[in-house]
C-alpha cells in the first residue's frame, strides 16, 4: 500500500483486514492509540484527506493513495491545543489527548464560531474518563475567543 503520512510517502505491506491504527503504529506514529477497537471512544482519531476518522475501524487498504495525518503532522496546532489543555487541567492522564486534539483541530478548521450544539456533535465520539469534560469545554471556549 502507498500513501502519504504526515507529508512523507510510505510504501508498506498491509494485511487485508489490518486497521489503519496498526499500520500507523508500525510507521512509528505512537501517538495513535487504541482505546476501544469499536469506534466508540475517539482515542484513535487521525485524518484521512483532512477529515477525522477512527483509525481502529478504518481498513488500512482504504488509505491507498490518500493523505493521512497524525498529531505528529500538525505540531504547531497540536502544541497550542495541548498547552490550553494543560493550563485548564484537562490533560490528566493524557491517553485520550492525541485523538481529542486531532478532533479539535479539525473542528477549528471546519467551523467558524460554532454553537455549543455543533461542538457537542463534532466531539460526540471523544471520550475522556479523567476530566469530566468541563475543563475541555473551557479549552474550546478559549480557542474561539
Describe this structure in words.
This protein has a five-stranded mixed beta sheet, covered by helices on one side. Helix content is 35%, strand content 13%. By secondary structure, the chain is an alpha+beta fold. It has helices at 20-26, 75-87, 97-110, 116-122, 134-143; strands at residues 2-5, 8-11, 45-48, 51-54, 67-69. It folds into two domains: 2-71, Roll (Ubiquitin-like (UB roll)); 73-144, [2Fe-2S]-binding domain (DNA polymerase, domain 1, Orthogonal Bundle). The chain starts with a strand and ends with a helix. Helix 2 (75-87) packs across helix 3 (97-110). The mean pLDDT is 90. The chain contains five helices and five strands. Strand 1 (2-5) and strand 2 (8-11) form a beta hairpin.
In short:
By secondary structure, the protein is an alpha+beta fold. Helices cover 35% and strands 13% of the residues.
List keywords for this structure.
145 residues; 5 helices; 13% strand; five-stranded mixed beta sheet; 2 domains; Ubiquitin-like (UB roll); 5 strands; alpha+beta; globular; DNA polymerase, domain 1; 35% helix
Number of strands: 5
How many domains make up the 3D coordinates?
Answer: 2
Helix content: 25-40%
Q: Please identify the structural class as seen in this structure.
A: alpha+beta
Radius of gyration (Å): 15 Å
The N- and C-terminal alpha carbons lie at a distance of 42 Å
Topology summary:
Blueprint: E1 2-5, E2 8-11, H1 20-26, E3 45-48, E4 51-54, E5 67-69, H2 75-87, H3 97-110, H4 116-122, H5 134-143
Amino acid at each position: 500500500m502507498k500513501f502519504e503520512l504526515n507529508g512523507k510517502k510510505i510504501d508498506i505491506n498491509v494485511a487485508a483486514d489490518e486497521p489503519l491504527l496498526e499500520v500507523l503504529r508500525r510507521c512509528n506514529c505512537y501517538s495513535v492509540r487504541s482505546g476501544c477497537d469499536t469506534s466508540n471512544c475517539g482515542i484513535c482519531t487521525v485524518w484521512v484527506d483532512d477529515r477525522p476518522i477512527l483509525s481502529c475501524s478504518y481498513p488500512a487498504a482504504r488509505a491507498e493513495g490518500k493523505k493521512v495525518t497524525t498529531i505528529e503532522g500538525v505540531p504547531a496546532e497540536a502544541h497550542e491545543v495541548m498547552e490550553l489543555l494543560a493550563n485548564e487541567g484537562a490533560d490528566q492522564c493524557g491517553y485520550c489527548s492525541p485523538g481529542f486534539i486531532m478532533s479539535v483541530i479539525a473542528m477549528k478548521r471546519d467551523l467558524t464560531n460554532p454553537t455549543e450544539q455543533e461542538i457537542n456533535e463534532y466531539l460526540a465520539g471523544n471520550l475522556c474518563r479523567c476530566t469530566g469534560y468541563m475543563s475541555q469545554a473551557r479549552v474550546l471556549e478559549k480557542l474561539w475567543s
